[in-house]
Amino acid sequence: MTAESGRSLNRWNVRIIRSRPRALVLIGSIAFLLGPWSAGACGGAAPAGQPARSPGEASPSPAGPPRAVWVLSPLGLNVHATPAASGSRVEVAPQGTRLDVVGSRTVGSERWLQVTAADTGDRGWVLDRPDLVIDQQVSLHVDQASGYSLLFPSGWAIGTSGATTTFTGTDASMLVQTSDDPGRLLTTPIAPGKELEERGPIEVYGVTTYLTVYRRNGGGFEYDVKVRFPKTGVGYLFEFEQRTGSRPDTSLFEQLLDSVSVPGEV
């Protein structure tokens, strides 16, 4: 995974387009609701090979931790009593949960964030990884016709016209197109452009695919991901347009892809 990067979400907008409506199916991995965090998040021994210290004695990261993060993973995020994967699991924070950051610690090559649950005030540790958390406020959107879901920046305006749902920012757009026949998905690049590179492999809800980067003839960049989910057989096109900047930056697009959940594929 690439290193975590923070970006201003008010630069982007997302447009979701689907070719055929599908029935909404609620799945437990994105819709489960967990009880309050246990106060035990503040307890536990230090991980092996690390000096013992109080869980409240978190040291700031040299790069500086974000002030808050939101859970990306549709399966939720493990909250540990200590900054280690082997530490006891206190709770699983559901997708979209806000976690206020009160400190951080680097263990080997990994950065751990000491967080406080915004609703309960209880503390614990989570792994700071860009496929698990995002340092921008997000909300969950469930497509009522197709049933898939994804997180989007909370400040974006949402508009719906027929089969098209638009999340509006200023300098970018993303569309999601679905089809029972993957061959009927839009040809990419959607706008005329030159292919720069293919990145990957990446995963979209457990399915391996690739991300193609194009430089658009009219300026800006386009990123395209096509994937066919094996159980439902439905094809998806995820397309993201970056209108500003001299270099392609796929980091926000990839984080939004990490939040995608597709019914029937669990």
Task: Give an overview in words.
By secondary structure, the protein is mainly β. The protein folds into 2 domains: 9-24 and 143-258, Jelly Rolls (Sandwich); 31-134, SH3 Domains (SH3 type barrels, Roll), CATH 2.30.30. Helix content is 5%, strand content 41%. It is built from 2 helices and 17 strands. The strands form 5 sheets. The chain has a 5-stranded antiparallel beta sheet with strand order 7-6-5-2-8, with no helix packed on it. β9 and β10 (149-153) form a beta hairpin. The longest helix has 8 residues, at 251-258.
Would you kindly provide a brief summary of this structure?
The protein has 266 residues and is mostly beta strands.
Strand content: 35-45%
- Biggest sheet details: 5 strands, antiparallel
Per CATH, the architecture of the largest domain is Sandwich
- Report the span from N to C terminus: 23 Å
Return the CATH class of the largest domain: Mainly Beta
Roughly what percent helix?
Answer: under 10%
The low-confidence runs, each spanning 5 or more residues with pLDDT under 50, are 1-62
Q: What is the CA-atom radius of gyration, in angstroms? A: 19 Å
On the 0-100 scale, what is the average pLDDT?
78
Give the total of domains: 2
